[in-house]
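Pilot study result, target chain (261 residues):
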Amino acid sequence: MSKAAIERRVITILYDFQKARKVWGDLVSDGLTQANALVNVQLQQGYVDSPGYWPPALDRFLDLKERFEGKLQKRAVAIVEDFETTFSKMSAQYSKMKLQTSQLEYLMEEATETFGEAFVYRDFFGTTCTLEQIRIQLDRVFALYTEQIILNREILDHLVARNQHYQPQFISASASATTSARGSSDDRSTKDSVALDTTSINDDNDPNDQHGLGAMIPPVRGDKDQGMVLLSAWLNQPHLKTDVLATFDEFCQVELFGNET
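Predicted structure:
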């Protein structure tokens, strides 16, 4: 393999990584629409049990409440399925990003064997960076997505738990509550497609945890408040630090993509 071939391969790796990030961003928008629809349905389900929204006079109509609840539940189940599909697609993009980081590591090993350590660790590969520095930048961004996909799974599980009339407590709930909310989805292939340490998900109730929902949002009361917190967490994707991502985008453009002919 020539040095020019290595350079072309690195550029391809970064292009594929950036493409997966773009698709991820589109899926965040899709997921937000689905999450918002699910929260709205859940609020309507709560209204059925509230005399202020469901006058007792309506109880004179046989099975009206049950039929209305059944309709809402059917709609909620359909939304959850769509949301799970979106997360599955997001997991696929995460897997693609992981593949690119692995391919770059393999390429570095091959380059070291062929051209020596100086080519990888000391010689400029782009404008002012080495091949090792490219790997460091890529790993830094990938680490953010690793944290974020864990949080996204957590948000989805909390929303599904709400639909099952289980109200998660963000700060003080036991770890077993989180596990039970997730139990029905443990065997889904969407989780198998992402190699994650699920223990970090179950620790979200630890007030000292800096990655789960409990670390980044205060305890709230009320279905509407909880729903808005979950929607905000999904919308903002808080682990994807904008300054780090902007630096990486500029790095790719200046150091590599800008040198293409």
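One observation from the pilot: Residues 3-259 form one domain. A full batch analysis is planned for the follow-on phase.
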